[in-house]
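INFO  loader      accepted 1 record
INFO  loader      residues=115
INFO  predictor   begin
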Amino acid sequence: MNSNEFWDEIRRGLVDKDSLVRKQALYILRISLDIFPSSENDAAQQCSRRRSAALPAQDKPNTAMTKREKEARSLGIRETSQSDENCSSRKDRSKVFLLLYEMLQEYGTHLVEAA
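INFO  predictor   done
INFO  writer      dumping tokens
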């Protein structure tokens, strides 16, 4: 099994109708994210260059926070600016995905039934 097949199986497991399969896929995903090294060396350098080139107005702590930034802060996710959107680390993206996935698993059926 190559890497693409592995991740395809994880994706299929996360959306399976059987809750046990979804839980197993989520467990394997968590372990896999900890085991597989990320290749962020070039991306990290590009992102740090973008951050240093950001306009001074973007770096001011007194600027008003957007709704998106407030939600991110409440979830414990680092702040991002529009110029920094694609620069989040794999760890940050994984954390956000897992939080959203778990929230949808827990509350998704209630939201659908209520509508």
